[in-house]
## 1
Amino acid sequence: MTTTASPALLGSGTRTRARRPNAHPPMRRREVAGAWTLMAPYLALLLIGGIIPIGYALWVSFQQSPTLLEPTKTGFGGLQAYVTAISDFRFGQSFLDIFTVLLVWLPVMIVSVVGLALLVHASPGRFGAIMRFIYYIPGALGGVANLMLWVYLLNPSQSPISGFLSSLGFTTIKQVVATQGDLPVILAAMLLLQGLGQWIVTVNGGLNSISEDILEAASLDGANAWQLAWRVKLPMIRQWIGYAALLNLAYGFQLFLEPYLLNQVASGALPSEYTPTQLGYWFAFVGSNFPAAAAMSVIIVIITLAIGLVVVFRSGLFAVEEH
Amino acid sequence: MTTSLLRTAVTNRRGPVRRWDAGRIARVTFMTFVALVFLYPLVGFFTVALRSDDGVAAQTGGFLGIGGISWDAVQHSWNQIFAYGGLDTPHVYVTWLLNTIFVAVTGGVLALIAALPTGYALARLRFRFQRPILIVTLLAMVMPNTVLVIPLFLEVNAVNAVGELWPVAIIMGFFPFGVYLSYIHFRTAMPHELVEAARIDGLGEISIFLRIALPISKQAVALVAFFSFVANWTNFFLPLALLTSSFGTQTISVGIQSLISSSPLFNPTAAAGTPIKLYMPELALATAISTIPLLIVFIVAQRFLIRGQTLGAVKS
């Protein structure tokens, strides 16, 4: 589970307090000192876990890469590391791969999340609660556990859907995942099963925030359950749908665990640098080219940061817009 | 804060008795079908953990192999998992569990120590850079945490601490979502007047937080602790990048990866030299055991989670 569980909590509080810079100087000074003292541990962690690594990666990305002839070569390298990363033959392909996965996965994901959330919302009481809980279970399993579940599912020799797999002509898990064109579909299915429940709960939170009066008024006007969902609820959770789409887009971009471990399960039959994050990992751990790994990270950080900025400033879900 | 939820409950109870029309039948049937699609592989998977190697390989045991569950098989699988390890790292599975408990708990405690006072300060105190700090926190929250793993690796590598557990624990303590949760909590649960009143009574800013804000924050503590523990426990990429070099200091998620790669199912050559054979039942059992702590914290935090979800229904 990642922080995508967050969205159910929306801070739509408006700023009511006006700034009074010089109202009570001594008290204000104590308030400011108190605030910084209280935040000190977090600011330290923010530096260690966020600011410094990004700054350091930026610095490293402008260093020279060591070569075989000069393994200890250092110094300013300009854009050399970026050129190395971008001109790597796997660079374009890894983004193409991730786009393919996103293309297969995102539409199905968003439609399923919204559809099931609307169905859960239309089922008040115990039935809806039980269904929501069941949809949530696979997501609660988390990273590696979810992968093991799929190893079990995709291995024709013991899969509960082995009949289906063998009807497609597969006899080993290696064939299943390594056959051309299968990987995006498998990754999409994995991400779908893992993410659905969490996002149903989130979008359901958005649905719960629709005023009962509106729904009641629509029912009195003769709207049936279908019209209620399509014409009233759906337009009102537009910003939640946008939020879900953007956060899942950012999540999809950094895909690592699933393709990395599927490759192990397939005894290395998959491309080991399938996604951009995997390519960054390769630069750092196999190629021992830290500048290129840093450049790769900077590129990925910029993309997800752009998505993050849109989410924070444009989704309308966070109270940071100016009032 | 639960008003809208209560209202829903009341409306439903008093609402007209609904008939089983076509739409309702279709909805219930479809939702039940989806639930079964979700449950089918899960039941099968957890059943595999309780079956024997031969039974799973031969696909006996009837529907989803449920008939093949046996205590002997569980014992055999556990003995294999328990015996797994190197010469200087015996019973490494248990070590991995202990390592994970260490980083997940330390990271969770750090997240609490950092998140609650910060959430309070952002929500109820006035100071410069309040908005930028909130925005940076939100950005860090919505960005997937894996994008920083390679930069974090470079940072930890620069201080020669790769392969040690403590950097992982400290980095896990950076949990912006926890700050946001606490921020929302103090905005909704602690009126500004309470802070003013405490000041008039002569309490210092830190004492107001410790003696007034903290005691009404059980809900926020539970939520931050739960979400950070789960995120830490299931984190894969960070420990993979920082700990792969040392077998005995890995966490369970990276450890299970090692189990996969030494299974004869996926890597016959690597598995040939060892007496320990990890087939699907062993792998499934190792995975199932690794999810027990998640189950425990979920049960403990459950009542707070249900209330926490309704935070989303708050319109302030």
## 2
Amino acid sequence: MALKGWHEILIGGMITDVGNSIDYKTGDWRSYRPIWDDKKCNNCKVCWVYCPDGSIVVKDGVMIGVDLDYCKGCGICAQECPQKAIKMMEETKLREAVK
Amino acid sequence: MTTMQVAKYKGIPKGLEGDRAVAEAMRQMNPDVVAAYPITPQTEIVMRFSDFVANGEVDTEFIAVESEHAAMSSCIGAAAAGGRVQTATSGAGMALMWEVLWVATGSRLPIVMHAVNRSLSSPLNIHCDHSDTMGMRDAGWVHIFDENVQEAYDNAIQMVRIAEHPDVMLPALHALDGFIIGHSVERLETLPDQAVKEFIGTYKPKYSLLDVEHPATFGPMDLPDYFSEHKRQQAEAIQNALDIIVQVGKDFGELSGRPYGLMEGYCLDDADYVLVALGSTAGTSKVAVDMMRDSGVKAGLLKIRCFRPFPHKMVSEVLGKRKVIGVLDRSISFGAQTGPLCLEVIASFFTHGCYPKVVNYVYGLGGRDIVPTQICEMYKELVEIDKKGITGPVQRFFGVRD
């Protein structure tokens, strides 16, 4: 998103385009990444209920993964999962593993 | 108030204390919401105004809050909801508002505050000095000083138009000296209710929380990528207020016969020795100027009406070529070279390339009286500085016992 000048924006930080938080990808705040084990998951969707950012992706009533563009890595899903199907891993360690 | 002119409306003569004159102006303005907490010496404003509410003389929703922090927060909520909102406070109460004073400006909400100047503790003191409003001078509020009860009434009404102007959209306060103006009965002329109603018109906010057809978010998180741009807008808005204050003061003059500008000169045209003052002391100084003129000294006064935005260019134009200037500060900026008004005056001279001799008198702290003979002593010092050609200490604590 190109940054605008002070003449081009509304005063007081006011927002009138409702729902624009979709434009702000908060995934880069994350220091722990949820790793989902679809073999352990029984699709109860407790994670979907608890996720404060709506980052649990559900398609046709079935959990299919985590939207890492928005997931801040808070770990609530991992804490609440009754099947222990989600565990949190440090991003730095994941990146090292990729190298 | 400068010179009298022909008025559209005939004034109604009354004898009122400053606080009651402000409450009367508030009754006539009939704001949507007033949220306030009582504190000396402002209490009479909200006390009297709550009578108007109880008697059904206004339509205002009066919120009796639990603190000044809550008062200003309520004002912010009500203003964001699109209401015309006012409050009143003094001294420690204003200090308790501190955090939210900045929210009001940053959110660009045209709240009007009737500020009755009171010193800040400690030691505890309920009387007048300007420590409270000077303490919030960088919070971004339009900041005007009243000289007397008439001006307290007149400025209270003008603040609404200034704050709500689309080029400004900032909260605005006018400050009246606690007790000296607030609790002193003076003759004034009020306007008919209808005239005030017409003058302030109807507030039509561009955005409001209650406009469900056009939803808006007020006061969101603003990170480093945009915060500076929003502050830049705010800096522009308060500079825009310079022209708006003059325009509103002119319109008010047509209505009442009392036009207002950014400042007022008294015996200034040929004056060599000029004192610069705020508030009620400007009135006292006019008497001193007359006394000095009687004794043959070319004394003059510059009353600063508008402190924020500070009319720096005009100050340098008016005062730049005088022999000696004395600036009166009713507060201290601890650790600075001078009080806050004198800092502004000196900065105005420097940036506009004029260098008259300047001294700063700190006076009247915690409500200590200042009388014309004392102001004459200051004028005599200015004459002495001119004769000797040596300024001496810049900041002088006037009337403080050794």
